[in-house]
Design goal:
alpha/beta; 7-stranded mixed beta sheet; 13% strand; globular; binds adenosine-5'-triphosphate
Length: 256
């Protein structure tokens, strides 16, 4: 069964999509079977793998609302399988309200394919509403990317209390991990944010930190993860190391 990791932070622009796309590519490079589920109406993870988010059909929206089969919606790219999203997904947060098991629509959908993957990575929108609640209910682990800047910790307590409520009522097994992004070890600020984050996630912060690296910001415009765009860049090296760290804790099954 796949380990499902949701990239969550209601703060925008902290590196959720960048981490989701690049970690997926590095896990696949290391031999894992990986599905990225784009669950953000911005569709950035979809386009980050070179999939045309304007033209793609069916998407995760059709899976959630019209009962399309997940296998039909999955796009196979060179870097990872992708369950695409686009702006149509925005409507789902309202359309799901009257539906049965509205918090579990994503979990129920992913259950159709989870036996085929080692990892399912979910890219979440920058909000804490019903779409994100679905991500939290579908996830084994919530991975919170924290940008190493002054306002990084603002809103973190709201996120942590939402996760606590979800753990108490909807998904008791959920675990929480922190990832430092856009880290600059030369600045005191990055060091201070790192210390603070370690206080919020005791023992649960990845040792690997993601540096600020321009290659990471250029790669999506080429529809590629950074490993395919500039394989030896600092960004590519960091996400490979992150994949190794994750695989040490979650070894792949032996396959013939
Ligand atoms: P949103 O909340 O809008 O979905 P996000 O949390 O998914 O945003 P990203 O889209 O991954 O954040 O990153 C925000 C911007 O910062 C993007 O332009 C991305 O290319 C850039 N970026 C992310 N990580 C890094 C990094 N380590 N170094 C340099 N640029 C980065
Ligand atoms: Mg994003």
């Amino acid at each position: 069964m796949a380990k499902t990791i949701a990239f969550v932070n209601q703060k925008g622009g902290v590196g959720k999509t960048t981490s989701c796309v690049n970690l997926a590519a590095c896990l696949q490079e290391a031999g894992a079977k990986v599905l990225v589920c784009d669950f953000d109406p911005q569709g950035n993870a979809t386009s980050g793998f070179g999939v045309d988010k304007g033209a793609v059909f069916p998407t995760i929206y059709d899976v959630l609302i019209s009962g399309a089969a997940v296998e039909h919606a999955i796009v196979h790219t060179k870097y990872s399988d992708v369950l695409p999203a686009n702006k149509g997904l925005a409507g789902a947060s309202v359309e799901m309200i009257p539906l049965d098991r509205r918090e579990y629509r994503l979990k129920d959908a992913l259950a159709q394919v989870e036996a085929s993957y080692d990892f399912i990575l979910i890219d979440c929108p920058p909000s804490l509403e019903l779409l994100t609640l679905n991500c939290l209910c579908a996830a084994d682990t919530v991975l919170v990317p924290v940008q190493c800047e002054y306002y990084a910790l603002e809103g973190l307590s709201d996120l942590l209390s939402t996760v606590r409520i979800v753990k108490g009522r909807l998904n008791p097994a959920i675990a929480l991990e922190g990832l430092l992004t856009m880290y600059d070890g030369r600045t005191n600020l990055s060091l201070q944010v790192a210390e603070e984050v370690k206080r919020h996630f005791p023992g649960k912060v990845f040792a690997t930190v993601i540096p600020r690296n321009v290659r990471l910001s250029e790669a999506p415009s080429h529809g590629k993860p950074v490993t395919a765009y500039d394989s030896s860049s600092r960004g590519a090296v960091a996400y490979r190391r992150l994949a190794e760290e994750l695989l040490e804790k979650n070894p792949l099954p032996r396959r013939a």
